[in-house]
Amino acid sequence: MKVVVRAKPGAKREYIKETTGLFGPVGERRFVAAVHEPAVEGRANRAIERALARYFGVPPSHVRVVGGFMAKEKIVEIS
After folding, report:
1. Which of 18, 42, 56, 74 could form a disulfide with 68 if both were Cys (CB 3.0 to 4.6 A apart)?
2. Taking the model in full, what pTM does it have?
3. Strand order from edge to edge, sheet including 63-67
4. Cα separation, 23 vs 65, whole angstroms
């Protein structure tokens, strides 16, 4: 499954929240992921992967960012 994630690096409080998107395909799952890690050298991307793994109850190795590595909006694949 692929989901769209809006990244909020450097947040004081970590959370994952499902949102509704105004744009994109109907039924597309969209999330906001706030993580403590800064957006430096991929640290925020790895923190988002770990947070989504906890949210979906899968091992961290089953979650990876596949698009938008340096953007606020990321495509994340969960297997």
Report:
1. 74
2. 0.88
3. 15-19, 30-34, 2-8, 73-78, 63-67
4. 20
